[in-house]
Amino acid sequence: MTEITITRPDDWHLHLRDGEMLRGVLPASRDFARAIIMPNLVPPVVTGAEAAAYRDRILAARPEGQGFEPLMTLYLTEGTDPEDVASAAASGLVTAVKLYPAGATTNSASGVRDVAKVMGVLERMAEIGLPLCVHGEVTDPAVDIFDREAAFIERVLDPVRTRLPELRIIMEHVTTRDGIDYIAGSGENLAGSLTVHHLILNRNDLLVGGVKPHFYCLPIVKREHHRAALVAAATGGDPRFFLGTDSAPHSKDRKECDCCAAGVFTAPNAMAWLAQVFEAEGALDRLEGFASLNGPAWYGLPPNAEKLTLRRSEAPLPAPEALQTGAGPVVVFDPGLPLHWHVVA
Ligand code: NCD
Ligand code: ZN
């Protein structure tokens, strides 16, 4: 197959930032019709009013002709008011609430330390059917960074699901076989999103032959057998798995420095790399389900009416150039392998 046309995809986990960076990176998500927008700004997007203002800034930053719809989220804190969440959901302003364990990742300091303190909000969300997006890593310094996802399932996710089985939860950017197996063994109320870079990179890619700052993200990339489990889940047809790129732009100087920020910027070429991963698995016929159908179905939204066409070229494409933004250049995901797919329209 040298060309494939699918329902236009959505991105179920995206960082757009704010200000100059927002204006610079938003056009790079042009392949996606909608995206779940992460609320980890500084300061975070906590209240309905803050989400409404951020949504307006995103809409104002959209280039002419980009019909992109931001699906807003609220950043869950231990002070979040259940009624504010409920009214933001009722008005259609927010699509989900995001749980960051405090300190787990970029701008997560105001996140949740003790899940017992947000139980009132989670109960209200379960009642009204508002989904919870989770960054599934514990922050206990005693837990090794490569084991933090498995520990989160045992210590946080499973107890919350036992307590509130009606709560709809997305385990975002799943990076381990443990996560895949846990979701596969659960019911319809638990889904998992997968990034493009975690489908391609393992920890050798990050660390062997020198540390690659542009492959550093959280959750950190794992062993090869975990990566293989993610690919099997993405291409396997289970509708509870769908695409969430976690495209997370940082300026080049914040990546190439003493203390590299976590995040991989994949928005510009996510769909091309995804097509290549699915082709390698002989699963191009399942690309549409993973990128365009499973996500809306789980969130109870209609699939997009528009289409997206990707084409395979014999000659590999040139390596991507950094995106120039008003907040500095942002290096685009490049796993260093030949890429043959590109989006035509
Ligand atoms: C994200 C960011 O930069 O905001 N970084 C990342 O490595 N994925 C935060 C996150 O989603 O964990
Ligand atoms: Zn993220």
Q: What does the model show?
A:
This protein is an alpha/beta fold. It has helices spanning 19-25, 48-61, 82-90, 119-128, 148-163, 177-184, 196-200, 203-207, 224-235, 252-255, 270-280, 287-299, and strands at residues 3-7, 11-14, 34-37, 69-75, 94-99, 132-134, 169-171, 190-194, 241-243, 307-312, 323-325, 328-330, 341-343. The strands form three sheets. Strands 2-3-4-5-6-7-8-9 form an eight-stranded parallel beta sheet. α3 packs parallel to α4. It is globular, with a radius of gyration of 19 Å. The site of N-carbamoyl-L-aspartate (NCD) has 11 residues, from loops.
Kindly list the characteristics that best describe this protein.
TIM Barrel; alpha/beta; 8-stranded parallel β-sheet; binds zinc ion; binds N-carbamoyl-L-aspartate; globular; 345 residues; 12 helices
Layout of SSEs?
Blueprint: E1 3-7, E2 11-14, H1 19-25, E3 34-37, H2 48-61, E4 69-75, H3 82-90, E5 94-99, H4 119-128, E6 132-134, H5 148-163, E7 169-171, H6 177-184, E8 190-194, H7 196-200, H8 203-207, H9 224-235, E9 241-243, H10 252-255, H11 270-280, H12 287-299, E10 307-312, E11 323-325, E12 328-330, E13 341-343
Parallel strand pairs: 2-3, 3-4, 4-5, 5-6, 6-7, 7-8, 8-9
Antiparallel strand pairs: 1-10, 10-13, 11-12
Bound molecules: N-carbamoyl-L-aspartate and zinc ion.
N-carbamoyl-L-aspartate is lined by residues 15, 40, 105-106, 135, 217-218, 246, 248, 262-263.
